[in-house]
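Notes from the 1:1 (GR / supervisor)

We went over the backlog. Supervisor wanted to see one worked example end to end before approving the batch request, so GR pasted a single chain during the call. The sequence is below; no edits were made to it. Supervisor asked that the structure be written out right there so they could see what the output format looks like.
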Amino acid sequence: MKQWVVLSGKGGTGKTTVVAALAHLAAQERRLVLADADVDAANLELLLLPRTVETHDFFGAKVAAIDPDLCVACGACQEVCRFGALLAHNGTYRVDRTACEGCAACYYECPARAITMVQQPTGCWSHSETSLGPLFHARLFAGRENSGQLVTQVKQSARLLAARSGADLLLVDGPPGIGCPAIAAMAGADLALLVIEPSVSGLHDLERILATARHFQVPAAACLNKADVSTAQRAEVEAFCLAEGVPLVGAIPFDTVVTEALVHRQPVTAYRAGPVTSALQALWLELRTSLHNKGAQNS
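Structure output shown during the call:
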């Protein structure tokens, strides 16, 4: 089983559009498992119309809780809290759980042992079925932390099912940026497909995410989205990829048909034939025949 993750240095580059299209093309000839690793704003499910099979709570870091019967209102907890999570009101104290970072300083400082550290759901993850294969996705609750851990939960669940079912490919729709969620998404991947745009910021984003992939020794390849919006910037991106030894495996033109497909909640390759679909088919063939068998260059 191969594991591919689609990433970019920022949001809005078209990762999910590319993932949905690759999934549609790959599912015609291979057994596929999908994972949406963007737990802050998962949207692969919007295109694939999944049927939920099971949903589980996700528990991240613990938060403080005060037993009012034991609290002596000494204020020691508030003094040591660096996050303003301990609030005084009418001689009593309570915990603002949205502000608590789970550091447990108040727990250790409380002389009355009135504070405990308790778990609370910080998100949920689901296993769903789609017409293209199983999909694992998640939602981090507003204001909650540990998105990297939730991404790991999603990927581990997807990987286990892929291994049990004998799937050929685990395709991961990665989160934007280069932080913990992106690092968790690319862990163990055989290929990081970097979706970029031909712009000044797009080249900078490529540099960042490529450096991250190389740091974690994940082979990388690049795909230009909206490739024809700037000839000059496209040339710069191509020159960078050539200089860095990064395979440029696809170039997708700008076309409003992509928006139409999104509105109709379909992968663009299933929605209508045309230049975009042809470019995505060429991308799939390149990945299948070249990178899937040989691996991408990483240095």
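Supervisor's comment: Residues 275-294 form the longest helix (20 residues).
Batch request approved.
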